[in-house]
Amino acid sequence: MQDTEKIIPIAEEQIDINSVADIPGNTHLSNPESVTENISEKLEVEVQEQKDKYLRLFAEFDNYKRRTAKERLELMQTAGKEMAISLLDVADDMDRAEKQIANDDDVTHVREGVQLVFNKLRSLLQQKGIVAMISLDSDFDVEKHEAVTEIPAGEEKTGKVVDELQKGYYMNDKLIRFAKVVVGK
Predict the structure, then answer these.
(1) Which of 155, 168, 178, 164 is CA-nearest to residue 136?
(2) What is the SS3 assignment for 13?
(3) C-alpha span between 58 and 11 (Å, rounded)
(4) Is residue 33 part of a domain?
(5) What is the Cα 84 distance to its own chain's centre?
(6) What is the pLDDT of residue 14?
(7) Whether residues 124 and 135 fall in one domain
(8) How many separate domains does the chain show?
(9) What is the percentage of the chain residues whose pLDDT exceeds 90?
(10) CA-CA 20 to 30 A from 84: which of 25, 52, 77, 145?
(11) What CATH number is given to the structural domain containing 141?
(12) Using CA atoms, how far apart are residues 185 and 179, in angstroms rounded to an integer?
């Protein structure tokens, strides 16, 4: 025998590497078609489950979008309802004042009645969180005021609000209308 061809026994029993089907746990080597079919069936079932979950989730999200859009539309349509109902009382008082003006010649009675209606309106607005902005003699602020014009007003009134053409208003401390003002220069 030559030195290069020595057979070294690995264990008491030598394994024939060509007959791996005899070794437990290697059945996939002896029957590859059934294993491939089994894996593809499992994958198809898993893909189908994922598709089903995706479709359900998508449908649920679509329903959520529709429902919230509908709720938002309803909220926008009825948002001013409470304020409108409150203003109807003032409108009724205005109608009564108008009838009184037509029937009464005494200016003091008419003035008192109209002043009561104005006070009721101001009170109602204040109850709803609407407050008039105080602008006269304050510094001009572009965040709160809209300058209509500038007039010469002297050095102490430069950059200050000299006249208020239209009041600005806050609603719950948030600006809802800019004040239209005349600024001194």
Answers:
(1) 164
(2) coil
(3) 61
(4) yes
(5) 25
(6) 55
(7) no
(8) 3
(9) 52
(10) 145
(11) 2.30.22.10
(12) 18
Residues 144 and 123 in one domain: no
* Domain end (from 76, 99, 114): 76
Residues 129 and 171 sit within 8 Å (Cβ to Cβ): yes
How confident is the model over 27-86, as pLDDT tens digits? Answer: 555 555 666 778 889 999 999 999 999 999 999 999 999 999 999 998 888 878 888 888
SS3 call for 2: coil
Q: How far apart are CA 147 and CA 139, in angstroms?
A: 12
Domain of 90 in residue numbering reads as 80-128
Residue 149 domain flag: yes
Distance CA 135, CA 142 (A): 12
Grade residue 107 by pLDDT with cuts at 50, 70 and 90. Answer: confident
CA nearest to 153, candidates 180, 128, 183, 179: 183
* 155 located within any domain: yes
Q: C-alpha distances in angstroms, 147 versus 137, 141, 168? A: 14, 9, 12
